[in-house]
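User: Hi! Is it possible to get a structure for several chains at once, not just one? Here's what I have:
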Amino acid sequence: MSITILSNPYYFMRFASIAQPVCCVLCVCFFITGTYIGLYNSPADYQQGEMVRIMYVHVPAASLSLGFYTFIAISSLIYFFWRHKLADLAAASAAPIGAVVTLIALITGALWGKPTWGTAWVWDARLTSTLLLLFIYAGYIALRHYIDHEEKAARIASLFAMIGFINIPIIKFSVEWWNTLHQPASLLRLTGPSIATEMLIPLILMMIGLVFFFATVVIMSMQTEIMKQSIKRYSAL
Amino acid sequence: MLHSFFYVMWYDIRSYITNLSTLATVCLFYLSIIIVIPFGLDGNSTVISQSSTGFIWIAFVLCALLCIEKQFSQDIHTDILDILSLRYSLALICFSKAIAVWVAILLPLILFTPLSAILLHLPFSQLYPLLISLLVGSPAIAFIITLGGALSLTHNRGSLLVAILCLPLCIPVLIFGVTAASVSIYGYDNNTSGLKLLFALDLLAVALLPWASGEILRIELENK
Amino acid sequence: MTMELSIHNVSVARQEKTIFSSLNFTAYAGDIVCVTGKNGSGKTTLLRCLCGLLPYQNGQICLSHNTGRYVQHTDSQWGRYVSFLGSKNPLYEHYSAQENIDIWCRYWQLPRLSSQEKERKLDEADLTKQRDTPIHYFSSGQKRRLSLVLVSLTYNSVYLLDEPDIMLDSCGQAYLQNLLTTLSERHVITFISTHHSKSIPSNQTLNLDEVSRHHCTHVSVTPS
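Assistant: Yes, the chains can be modeled jointly so their relative placement is included. Here is the combined structure:
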C-alpha cells in the first residue's frame, strides 16, 4: 500500500470520507485551544502589549502561505508529468485557500504594523515577496478561469504554477538584495530575543490548526469536484 | 535543426521591420511614459534626475510587456506553427522568437534610451551604466514576453491577464537592472554584482522559459 | 514500390468526449482517401491526429514500406513523412507569394527554386500576377491556391489536406484535381477531408458518420 493508490478516485473517495471528518475535528480542536491559550494564557509583550496577539493569526498565515503554494507546485508537477488527475484537482482546490491565507497574512500584517512600526506597509523583502505571491496566486486562479477548455486550463495552469514556484525564491532574493542596498537600517527587526515558550505554544497550535483546516477544505472541495464530474458523466450516458 | 532556428528568427525580424507599426507603437509608448513622468513629479528636476534610471527601466519593462500580444499574433491566424511543430522542436521556435523580438523591438528601444535620458535630466556619467544594464537585462525580458505571448494564445480575452502574469517574472529583472544602473549614485562600488545577477537571470531564462513556452504552445496545438 | 498506412483500432477523445472509436482503415500508395462526414464528425480531428499534432487514446497508426522501413506514429521521425495543410493557410501575411515559397522551401529543407520555377508553379495556380503582392492583399481563394502550391512543393509519403477546396473557384478546383492526380502518380497516400466528395478523384472513402462512437475507455476521475 503506497500513497499512489490514492490516485485512484475510488480509493481517494474512501480515504476522503474518513480523513475529512478527522481533519475537521482536529482543526477545530487545535484552533480552539490555540485561540484560548493565545488570548488568555499567554503573556502580553513587554513592548507591544496586547497587540502581539495578532501574531497568532499573522505568523501561521504568513509562513503557511508559502507552504500551501509549495503544495500547489508539487501537485502541479505530479499532474504535469504523470497526468494524475487528482493532483490537478488538489492544486485547483488549494489555490483559493492559499490566496485567502496570503491575503489574511497581508491584512493582519498591516493591522499589526500600523501601531507597532507606525506604518501599514513597508517595502520590505518579506512584505513585497508576500504581495507578489498573492499576485501569482491570483494569476494562477485567473488563468484557470480564463481558459474554457478544462484539460488545457489544467495543464497550462500547472506549468504556470511550476514557473511561479521557481520565481518565488528569485523574487525573495532580489527584493532582499534591493533592500539591503536602499534601506540599510530596516524597521523590521521582528524579534530581538528569541520568542518566549508561552508564546510559542499557541503559535504552533494555531499553525497545526491551519494545516488541518487547509487539509479539510482541500479534501472537501476535491470530493465535490469528483462528485460533480461523476454527475456529469452519468447524465451524459 | 539549427537552420530552422535561424529562419524563424530571420522571418520574424523581417516582419517586424517591414511592418513597422509594432515598433512605432512601442517606441511612442516608451516616449510618452517618459514625457508624462515630469508632470507627475511637478517638474521638480532634482527628483526627476535622481530617480530617472528607475523610471527608464520601468518604462522599458512596460513597453516590453506591450509586445506580448504581437509575439505570436501572426501565427494565430495561420497554420505555420502547426506545420513547424511537425518537424522542429517548439522550444527552439520559441527561443528564436525571443531572439527576434529582442533584436527587432528591444534593441531599438535601448537605442532610444539616450533621448529619454536627456528628457529626464539623467547625468551623462549615468547613461553608460544604464545602457549596459538594459542591454544585459533585456534578453531575460524577451524570454518572459515570449512566454506571455504563448500564454495569450490560450484564451481570447485580451492580453491584460497575461501582462499581470508576466509582471512578477519581470520584477527581479527590474530590481537587478535598476541597481546595476544606479548603484554608483549611492556611492557603492559593486556595480558589477548587479550585472552578474542580471546575467544569471538571463541564463535561467534561456534554460527554462523557451521550454515552458514550447510546452504551452504544444498544449495549445493539441487542443486547437 | 508499395507502401501502406494502417490505422488500427484508433480512438480519439477530446475533453473527455469521444470523437470516434475503434477506427480501422488501411490506405495504400497512390490512394486518394476522401474523408467525409457531417460537421463535428471529427474530420479535422482525424487529420490532425494522423499528422501527429493530436494524441490518440488507444490503437496504433503506422506507415510501412515494402522495403522494410516501418514508422510508427509515436516516432519523432513521423513529422518527416507527412505534409499537412490545415483549415487555415500556412502563409506569412507580410511577405509576397514568391517569398512565401522561399520560406516554405527553407522550412522543409527543399532545394531553392529558381525564379523561373517559382513563376511556373505560380502560373499553374493562376497566381502569376500576384507573385510580388503581400499575402494580406490576397483574396481567400487566392490564399488557398497558394497554400496548395506550397504543399505541392514537398516530397513526402503522406499528404493530409483539411478541406483544401474551401473558397476555391472552378479554376482552383481544377488545379486541386490536377494536384491530386500528380500526387497519386507519385504513389503517395493522400487524405482529403471535404464536403464535396463528388469533385474529388478519390478511390477510397472514409465516412466518419459510420464509425462507431461508443464510449471508449480513457482516464477519468469517476469513482467506479
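The CA atoms of residues 74 and 162 of chain A lie 8 Å apart. Chain A touches chain C through 15 residues (CB under 8 Å).

User: Great, thank you!
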